[in-house]
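Hey, I was hoping to borrow your eyes for a little while. I've been staring at a protein lately and its backbone has me curious. You're getting the sequence in one-letter code plus the fold written as tokens. Would you mind checking whether the tokens look sensible for this chain? Here's the protein in full, and shout if anything looks odd to you:
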Amino acid sequence: MGGGLGATSLYLIYFNWRFNMKKYFLITFSFLFVILFISCTETTIEPDPQFVQIFFKYGFNNELNTFNNTYKKDLVLDGSVTVTFWLTADEQNRILAKANEIDFFTLPDTLDGDSLLVVIEPNPGFQTIRIKSENNDNIVNWTEPVSHNDPFVIKTLELYRFIISIIEAKPEYKKLPQSRGSYL
């Protein structure tokens, strides 16, 4: 018999080649699937639309500004740090509900200081809450000390504390550096 390849040999070569192609296809497909899976799990979180926009300046140098999606934290001795920051739809709805509950949109734009001549040093300056929603926009400013007997002040400080509690509960806030030092 001659040294040529028989039908059985050709079949075995073809079968071996086809088996190897399936194996390579399976490995390639698995590799591409893993890369696709990894790329899908490493997406960035997009902020919720800020349908309730808030500018909230409090303390000496803390500032929530959802008009620009930023939060600035006063670090006292170390200056301040500003980060990207936004509120979830639920947080916005809760703040808007609290603002409506205290009639924020009917409050005067400036709260009067305490009638006693009291000087606070260092002075934190104007404290501001501005809330803008689809149908309303109001800004309330005040300086310390304010009369804690004034019903407008009581309502504003209730909203003030409510917004701070939402800010400080957020993971983004908790990741910020601690303030070092204090104002006397």
